[in-house]
Specification:
81 residues; mainly alpha
């Protein structure tokens, strides 16, 4: 994953597609303590309606310093209302 892709995913998480999920997963495996990679992977699971979303959400919440920010990152449509 390039620097530009990472910045694009962070700025516009709604652009993450199911095809990006594998790239983000490999990035998460390469840097396991990088919490933003965990957040991006969780967002990709949510976009793809994966059955692993709830399980991964519990693990990702451990990496979050502020769970409220994680919630608004994952459920960004609630933030806009």
């Amino acid at each position: 994953m390039s620097y530009e892709e990472l910045i694009r995913y962070v700025r516009e998480p709604e652009t993450i597609s199911t095809s990006d999920q594998r790239i983000i997963f490999e990035f998460k495996q390469k840097y396991p303590c990088f919490s933003l990679a965990q957040w991006l992977y969780l967002k990709s699971l949510q976009v793809s309606d994966s059955i692993y979303f709830d399980k991964e959400k519990n693990k990702t919440s451990l990496y979050a310093s502020d769970r409220r920010k994680l919630y608004y990152f994952i459920y960004s449509e609630n933030k806009k209302k």
